[in-house]
Design a protein that fits this description.
Blueprint (H helix, E strand, L loop, with lengths): L1 H9 L5 H15 L5 H22 L6 H11 L4 H12 L6 E6 L6 E10 L2 E2 L13 E15 L2 H14 L2 E9 L1 H12 L5 E5 L4 H15 L3 E2 L10 H4 L2 E8 L4 E6 L3 H16 L4 H11 L1 E8 L3 H24 L1 E3 L3 H9 L8 H24 L5 H6 L7 E4 L4 E4 H4 L2 E3 L7 H5 L4 H4 L1
Parallel strand pairs: 1-10, 4-5, 4-7, 5-6
Antiparallel strand pairs: 2-9, 2-10, 3-6, 4-8, 8-9, 11-14, 12-13
InterPro entries: Cpn60/GroEL, Cpn60/GroEL/TCP-1, GroEL-like_apical_dom_sf, GROEL-like_equatorial_sf, TCP-1-like_intermed_sf
Pfam family, one: Cpn60_TCP1
GO molecular function, one term: ATP-dependent protein folding chaperone
Amino acid sequence: MLITSLIYLFAGTKYESVLVKAPNDEAFKALGRANLTGLTQGFRMAADAVVRNLDCQARKITTFEEIAQVGTTAANGDGEIGELIAKVFEKGWENDLITIFDRKALYNELNFVKGMKLEWGLKSPYFFTHKNKKECVLDGALVLIYDTKISNSNVIRQASLPCMMQGQSLLVVAEDVENEVLGDIATDFTCTTEKVCIIKAAGLAEDRKAIMEDLAILTGGQVLTGGSGMNSTYFVPLKLGSCKRVIATMDNVVIIGGSGELVDIQERCEQLRSTIKLSTSDKLKDRLAKLSGGYAVLKVCGHGKAEVREKKLKITNALHAVQAAKEEGIVPGSGVALLYASKELDKLQTTNSDQKIGVQIVQNALKMAAYLIASNAGVDGSVIDKLLEQDSSDLGYNPARGNYVDMFKCGDVDPLKHVPSEFAKATSMISLKNAI
């Protein structure tokens, strides 16, 4: 139906509820006095003009303050979250952000820690701790690294002793593990509160062992080879490394906050850099990137499910908003960008009255968000009318203070990507078939 197509026109935006109802009402009226083909052409003409205008209004964000403003607005005015997200982007860690919710924490905290991501996945889905996300998450884990196939349960049982004594989880990285051993380990850990995660290391033997050595240095442990001393109860625990957090899926694993000495990690990186100069291997460069990389860990305090859920939503919104703003820029918020875009439609030259009606339907809908915000604040619509008389598209109205403000300076902005800029694509879906 035509109405379905109009919903697509404005769907996926923060103004969706306003922008859908307005054109729906007008479209019902227009169908009785206008040709659908002409209406469709009018919609498409309006859409193209609006997209061009919004692109002209958009500004790139570069400074810390601008990024924090976007994050704060998206986080429903939470300035602290806005600044934390800005720090993440300032460091260039937006693609490596891990959020942890800690009910015991007294305040939000952002740290940048050493970490390594490997394309080695879980040995079995049995180790999922979050089945809905299909991932295993361990906090405060000891790390056992074994460069061959584990065919004896004794090795893992030795490693599990300090885990059970200290209340820590266990990460096992090995070439492979016998199914019989998996069954034994599953039985052993079923009766404890500690968690275990077994990672199957893929790749050629030489590459695999080299990466294991890198991981051992990162976590402060050693690679076990199954040599002499394996029958000693004290041998395996002495070789274990440790890390603050592990996130594993069936395809990859991320080890965060390894306890290896910084000087050892730096020395290993220098060795790799020296070798890279004498080699053309991309694998060495990949190893260096993994060993020298890291992650932004945002620890968020939350004292109840409701508070945690709210903060999680704020952080997600802020992160996505800033990413969108970095990609395509920002425009005035609170419906102001749409309001000014509606002025652009006055310049459109239509060839018939049906096209003109289609343009007017979109034009009226674009104004609705700003008028509704003003109305909800108890402000007369005339203040919005005055904005349409201005030449500057930066000017907006602040209902709380009752004055006109520069939307960019006061931080009331939206990422262009989150404003309805998909008009052209959406209107192309309108056809005679949809109207039947």
